[in-house]
Design brief:
Helices cover 40% and strands 21% of the residues. It has 9 helices and 8 strands. The protein has helices at 17-29, 31-43, 61-70, 83-95, 134-144, 168-182, 192-198, 218-233, 239-254, and strands spanning 51-55, 75-80, 102-106, 119-125, 145-156, 162-163, 202-213, 260-270. The chain is globular and about 60 Å long.
Length: 282
């Protein structure tokens, strides 16, 4: 079966899975992204001693942030379908001195092998836009959250991407065309409140945030390169046009005039009770 254009659908089948570990860690270290990620965790009301699950935990960046917030009495579990990501996340957690406080498992977020009401908080961050079965994942997140616990989700919304560039029509064609062909729901962010309300959560709140870059940092450069490469792959633009488009961003950055922004939307709600028992065991 040919690979889907979104590599996060099948990381372990990519030619170089380590590249995506590096990409996630690079994004995690980018100051603008680190700020919005941690603001979202505070928005979810993270408390010392909580048991927290992250679905789609990647290389473990968010789990490490959560571990710092729940403290030594808390426990963090990352669930991730990619074995390569899980191996990297375990190694990085050890390197950060988090052995015993953070654990990672290979598993499917749409069919979790966890008991009902096991966690104080469940999270899915920049995950739902990538997957076809996001409804099943959300339902499972609610199931494994205790009554009174928090379900929190955050996604980019690629309908809100903005790049200062002299060729606006080409920029729009690249961004919109690639997003529509790559992601299960490129505009996921704006739907999150509606989806949590639809699942019966209470006190659902919205946090709108923004990733911004005026220096063309490595993560943004990688994102733009990926969009250009895929625009060529999908027949949206010629290779020459894509290279010229990238060169303009490099020129603007060298002149101190580069601007790139992307909105992130977070939603969090409370799991009501009583819960329906299931046959799944812890």
């Amino acid at each position: 079966m040919p690979l889907h254009p979104d590599p996060y659908r099948a990381i372990d089948r990519q030619p170089d899975p380590q590249h995506f570990v590096t990409l996630l860690e690079t994004r995690g270290r980018t100051p603008s992204h680190a700020r919005l990620r941690r603001r979202f965790l505070r928005f979810c009301g993270m408390r010392p001693g909580w048991r927290v699950l992250e679905v789609g935990s990647g290389s473990g960046v968010l789990c490490r942030d959560v571990a710092a917030m729940v403290g030594p009495r808390g426990r963090v579990t990352g669930l991730e379908p990619s074995r390569r990501f899980v191996a990297a996340a375990r190694r990085l957690a050890r390197e950060h001195g988090l052995d015993g406080r953070v654990s990672f498992q290979v598993g499917d977020g749409a069919a979790m092998n966890f008991a009902d009401a096991r966690f104080d908080c469940t999270l899915a961050v920049t995950v739902l836009l990538h997957v076809q079965n996001s409804g099943a994942i959300l339902s499972e997140m609610v199931r494994v959250t205790r009554p009174g616990g928090v379900v929190g989700v955050q996604d980019q919304d690629f309908g809100t991407v903005a790049l200062h560039h002299p060729d606006r029509a080409l920029t729009r064609r690249i961004f919109d065309g690639v997003a529509a062909r790559m992601f299960a729901d490129a505009w996921s962010g704006r739907t999150l409140v509606d989806r949590l309300v639809g699942l019966g959560l209470t006190r659902v709140r919205l946090l709108a945030d923004i990733y911004q870059d005026t220096a063309l940092v490595p993560f943004t450069r990688s994102l733009l390169q990926g969009r250009a490469d895929n625009a060529v792959r999908f027949g949206l633009v010629s290779r020459r046009a894509a290279q010229k488009w990238l060169a303009e961003s490099e020129r603007l950055a060298a002149e101190g005039r580069f601007v790139f922004t992307l909105n992130f939307y977070g939603a969090a709600g409370i799991r009501p009770g009583p819960i329906r028992r299931s046959r799944r065991s812890a």
